[in-house]
């Protein structure tokens, strides 16, 4: 039994939630700054008065509650995106350890934390950075074996075949229609997800992601006048959500 396994259930959930909130603060900064070409190393500043934000005002979730979502110096409202991402990352950590205590739950939490910035960047900018996809893939190859009890070969197969199949689909669509039907980052994301799930669970991920994308497109079609075939779909968002959701579902349906 490892030290992680020895943690009481409640302590594991609380610790994962706290760590998730801290990581969520960094993830929010990354998502806001990276697309704008800004450095991630600079100090946080108020968007309104440009004064640096002190350490006591950077405590995830807590500082925003104490300051009622405003700057300590000028009172201007702080972008709620920060708090939302911190809360999402905290829920990913706490939820993972609540459902899967021990090492397996921690690996699932790491999976969720790595997927979160990819989903947010795709939702906001239709962008799946190669560096984040590569980080996700490497982490999956190195860490993900105990998550779904998959071997290294299973995960390599999923990465190569899953990414290759989506790349082929994208190429065939472009060849036939003369237009881009899938972003270049989507096959790489699926390959990286396969490095976590193995080939056995990857079809479930793709099914859930496709259903989510179709549902979103139909709902969006009902709210706008843009033809469905011309509407851009952030497939990465649904792939990330499906990948994280598929873990407990696969464990449930694969029980013998």
Automatic annotation (TrEMBL):
InterPro entries reported for this sequence: Peptidase_A24A_bac (IPR014032), Prepilin_IV_endopep_pep (IPR000045), Prepilin_pept_A24_N (IPR010627), Prepilin_peptidase/N-MTase (IPR050882)
Domain annotation Prepilin type IV endopeptidase peptidase: ranges? 110-218
Membrane topology of this protein: Multi-pass membrane protein
Instruction: Spell out the reaction equation it catalyses.
Output: Typically cleaves a -Gly-|-Phe- bond to release an N-terminal, basic peptide of 5-8 residues from type IV prepilin, and then N-methylates the new N-terminal amino group, the methyl donor being S-adenosyl-L-methionine
TM annotation in the entry? 6-32, 87-111, 131-149, 156-173, 193-220, 232-253
Q: Where in the cell is it found?
A: Cell inner membrane; Cell membrane
Which of UniProt's keywords are assigned here? Cell inner membrane, Cell membrane, Hydrolase, Membrane, Methyltransferase, Multifunctional enzyme, Protease, Transferase, Transmembrane, Transmembrane helix
Respond yes or no to whether keyword Methyltransferase is given for this record. Answer: yes
Domain named Prepilin peptidase A24 N-terminal: residues: 18-94
An example of a Pfam family matching this protein is A24_N_bact
Instruction: Quote the EC number.
Output: 2.1.1.-, 3.4.23.43
Task: Give the record's family classification.
Answer: Belongs to the peptidase A24 family.
Function comment: Plays an essential role in type IV pili and type II pseudopili formation by proteolytically removing the leader sequence from substrate proteins and subsequently monomethylating the alpha-amino group of the newly exposed N-terminal phenylalanine.
* Protein name listed in UniProt: Prepilin leader peptidase/N-methyltransferase
The root-end lineage is: Bacteria, Pseudomonadati, Pseudomonadota, Alphaproteobacteria, Sphingomonadales
